[in-house]
User: Fold these one by one.
Assistant:
Number 1:
Amino acid sequence: MNEKNKNLIIRAVTAVTLLPLVLFLLFKGGVLSAGLLGAAAAACAGEYYFITQKRLGVAAWVGMAAAALLPFLPLRDAARTGETAFWVTAVFFFFAWIYHLFHGPLAEAPSRAAHLVTGFLYSGIGLTALSALRLLPQDGLAWVICALTITWANDTLAYFAGRFLGKHKLYPAVSPNKTWEGFFGGMVGSVLGMFIARGFFFPVFTVWDCVLLGIAGGVLGPIGDLCESMLKRAYSVKDSGSLIPGHGGVLDRIDALLFNAPLVFVYVQFVRGLLP
């Protein structure tokens, strides 16, 4: 068996093993769902810090813990999640700068402090949005699945459209394999995925939900993917980590979701008016 086929088998086995567990924990909600999202946030933060700093020092571990905390905040008071998250972020911001002020090296202290805060926000915002959506009194799970659908359906159809139709490069300086054909194929996938979810599982989605979120997710998700590719290319890293066998790091798997989850949160709050 060649290396490529072996890797495909590992990817498939990992997906079949982990996906039911992820969906089960999201279905259960509450502490179990928040725990899943918190663990993912900590893993993403750790991968970001290792990419940018090549090590996990004391400050990085504090950043990982702070990122893990964010998805638990909606459990305390969902209506005040934004306010509480602001204060957690403010405290961590000052910690990052004060820590590096005294631990140096001073020439790198500002950039290290900035990376510490960025990794915390990059990892925590999207997963906290998912946690808040899950706590909606009605149809919380549906809106979490919405964020997953516009992300995963996009990724799937973008892959096949790019592989069989791709001719025009999307952004070769950042991601040489992505094409415009894959981009538009992925957008079709996001919209189609939403209509399938609406037709078979979640009638709470309106036709406009499917169209608007499908198109918006078809744009923002790939941007999230490109942003992570930009990070890896800047630091000459192939994968964000190796935590998920055959798939790389957690950040590699949910980079688009980290951008799409806040999109769904904002849509639910300001377009559908379902959040306080």
Number 2:
Amino acid sequence: MKSGLSALGVLVVLTVSACGQGAAGQTPVPAADGAPAPVSSSSAPAPDRGVDPCTLLDPKDRSTAGITVLGVAKEINGARACDWTVPATFGVTITVDEKNGLADLEVARKTATKTKVGGREALKVADKKAADGTCAVLLGMGEKASVQIDVSNTNFADTPLACERAVTVAGLAEPKLP
């Protein structure tokens, strides 16, 4: 039980630390200034690197999810990720883990609810007792890969709203996964 809480703590720390920060040596995607957005809306995986998390939300998807900014590519614990931070509102980070399937992830069972997104097995993870405004949806992507959608409200309140946002983003990203 303690290790499960520890895993959720890591999830929350990653979520909170992920919002708005680019990895060292990576160039953030510039803000839209009338020029076409450099983030691709292609659903095809990036050549030789698998799924590019920044391509999982195209402009229409971002609008549907209430995301008014472009994503910033980064790396979290060796996995590729993309971070969208809506100032003074919330942040979303999508991480593609190409080494761990849904069954391999350590999640506190009392904070996880099995669900489906599209036709995929998924887990919705939120600590309702902590009421910290964070929620994650973990999508299976085959036996040995997964995609994690983390949402963190900037006021660290309203966990149900964070979960609503995470489920919405997961539903938008899921059809683009292999």
